[in-house]
Amino acid sequence: MTIRSVAIIGLGLLGGSIGLAIRERASDIVTTGYDSDPAVRDAARQRGLVQSACESAGEAVSSADLVVLCVPVGAMEQAARDLSAALPANAIISDVGSSKKSVLDALMTALPDHVVIPAHPVAGTEQSGPDAGFATLFAERWCILTPPANADDAAVSSLSQFWARLGAKVEIMDAEHHDLVLAVTSHIPHLIAFTIVGTASDLEDVTRSEVIKYSAGGFRDFTRIAASDPVMWRDVFLNNKGAVLEMLGRFTEDLTAMQRAIRSGDGDALHDLFSRTRAIRREVIDQGQDDEKPDFGREH
Amino acid sequence: MTIRSVAIIGLGLLGGSIGLAIRERASDIVTTGYDSDPAVRDAARQRGLVQSACESAGEAVSSADLVVLCVPVGAMEQAARDLSAALPANAIISDVGSSKKSVLDALMTALPDHVVIPAHPVAGTEQSGPDAGFATLFAERWCILTPPANADDAAVSSLSQFWARLGAKVEIMDAEHHDLVLAVTSHIPHLIAFTIVGTASDLEDVTRSEVIKYSAGGFRDFTRIAASDPVMWRDVFLNNKGAVLEMLGRFTEDLTAMQRAIRSGDGDALHDLFSRTRAIRREVIDQGQDDEKPDFGREH
C-alpha cells in the first residue's frame, strides 16, 4: 500500500513543513490541506504548502490515502470528527502531536472504524504559523510511530516509508512509553524554560531591562524555547499529565539535592554532577542530534 | 591613565579571547600571560594568545598596567597572592569572574594596597581551555564593572575604555546587585540545565540512548549549557550562594504553581504564562542579545 495522496489538516509549522518536504522530496504525492483559519489558508496558497488548500476538512480528505492532523493535541478529537463523514474507508489517520496516548484514544474514539497510527516527528523550531515551515525540518530527525496493539502491519509500514521519504529516521514504540520519554526530552525542558523566563520577568529587585541586557549569560537560550506556541504547549501538558508530573517530581528532587549542596558548600557534589553532564553533550553531538559548533554556531 | 600593558592570568576561553581581541582590535597594547598548567602555556604560545607566555605569574605581571585574573572565582585570592610581590604599585587588578562580591572581597584581602576593580564580561561558550577563545567573543556583549565604593574614577574609566576597545558595552553597578542579576540571567539557568541533564541520564524507565535520540525535542538545548566548565561553575555556586538560593526559591515557587496548574487541569494558567514569555524572546532579539534566526540558526 503506497501513499499517493496526503491531506494535511492544520497548516502551521509542522503541517507546512510536511507539505514543503513532500514537494521537495516526494513530488509524486498529491497534497491537499485545510486550516480552520482563512488567513492561514491564504498564506498556505501563497507559499504553495499544499497543491490544494481546501475550504473544508471534508473536501481536503475526500481522496486521501493518508490524513495527517497537525493541530494542537487538545483539538485532535474534534478535528477527526469534522472530517469523518468524508474520509475514505481505507485512509490511514495520523498526526504529529507531542503526546501520543491521549491522541491515540481521541482518534480511535472519533474514528473507530479507521486505521489510526499516531506519529510524532521530534523536530520543530520556536516559530509557528504558515510562514514558519521549511522542507528540511525532518531531515535526520527521528519520527516516532505509536500504533495501537492491533495495528495493520502494512499500514504501519506505509507510514514508516512516508516519513523516511521526508528525510526522517523512524522508530516504533508504544504510546505510553513515548509519553514518558518525551516528558523528559521535551515537555519538562519546555516547562522549565517557560517557568524561568516567567520568574525572571516578575522580579522586583532585578528589572526586566537588566534581564534582557545580561541574557547572554545563559538565560537567552531558555527564551527561545519559551517562545514556542502557547496553545500547542498548554495542550501537551494537559494531555500528558501523568508522565509530566512524574518526571517533574524526579527533576525537583534532584534540584533540591543541588540546593542543599549549595547551601552546605558541598563542592564535590556540584563538581560530580557538572562533570557527568558534559559527556551527554558529547553523545548528543556524536549521534547527529546537534551541531558541534560552540554556542549553537551563533555568530560572534 | 591609558592601559599600555596587560597581563592575563589564566589562558582558557576568557583569557585567550582577551589576548586575541587585543591582538585584533588594540594591537598597541603589550600582552603577557601565565597559566599554572604548562600544557596550557604551550598551547597559548602556539596560538599566540599573548605576546609572552611567562613561566611565572610574577614575571607576567611585573610591567603590567592592568592584570586580568581569568581563573575560577574560588582561585582568585590565591592567584592574587601569588603575584602580589611582583605587582607594580599602580597596576589595576581586575578579573572576569561570574560572581563579583566574593571576588571583590578576595582581591581586596589579597592586595589591600592596590586598585581593585572587578569586572564580568557577560559572554562565553560552553567550551573551555586555550583552544576555545576567539577575538570577537566580547563584541556587542555587556561587560559589567563592579568597583568598590571608594574606587579611583580614573582607573574605572581606564578599565571601561579597555573593554570598549575589545568591542564590549560597559555598565557599572555594585557587586551585590550584579550577583543578584546574574543569579537569574546566568547562574540559575546553568543550575537548572546541569540538573535536568543529570536527571535525564539517571532514569531507569527511559534509557540514556532514548534521551540522546529524542533530544531535539528541547533537551539538547540544555546539554549545551550543561557542558560548561565544571570547576568554574562549582565555584560560582559556592561564591554566590545567597543570591542563587534566593532566586532558586523564586523559581521553584513558580514551578510548583505550574505543577499545580497541570495537576488540576488549569489550562488558562498555563496559556497565560506561555503567552507572556514569548514577548521576552522578542526583546532579547530586538536588543541584539540573540540571533533572530529560528532554532538559533541551526542548520536543518
Description:
Two copies of one chain form a homodimer. The termini of chain A are far apart. Chain A has 300 residues and is of the alpha/beta class. Chain A contains twelve helices and nine strands. The first copy, chain A, has a six-stranded parallel beta sheet, sandwiched between helices. In chain A, strands 7-8-9 form a three-stranded mixed beta sheet, with helices on one face. Chain A is globular. Chain A has two domains: 5-174, NAD(P)-binding Rossmann-like Domain (Rossmann fold); 177-291, Orthogonal Bundle (6-phosphogluconate dehydrogenase C-terminal fold), CATH 1.10.3660.
At CATH level 3, the topology of the largest domain in chain A is Rossmann fold
What's the number of helices of chain A? Answer: 12
CATH class membership of the largest domain in chain A: Alpha Beta
Gyration radius of chain A, to the nearest Å? Answer: 21 Å
The name of the CATH architecture of the largest domain in chain A is 3-Layer(aba) Sandwich
Gross geometry of chain A: globular
How would a textbook summarize the main sheet of chain A?
6 strands, parallel
CATH superfamily of the largest domain in chain A: NAD(P)-binding Rossmann-like Domain
Strand content of chain A: 5-15%
Helical percentage of chain A = 40-55%
Instruction: Count interface residues per chain for the largest interface.
Output: A-B, 109 and 109 residues
Given the helix and strand composition of chain A, which structural class is it?
alpha/beta
Tally of distinct domains of chain A? 2
Question: What is the first-to-last residue Cα distance of chain A?
Answer: 50 Å
How many runs of DSSP E, i.e. beta strands of chain A? 9
Please identify the oligomeric state: homodimer
Strand order of the largest sheet of chain A: 3-2-1-4-5-6
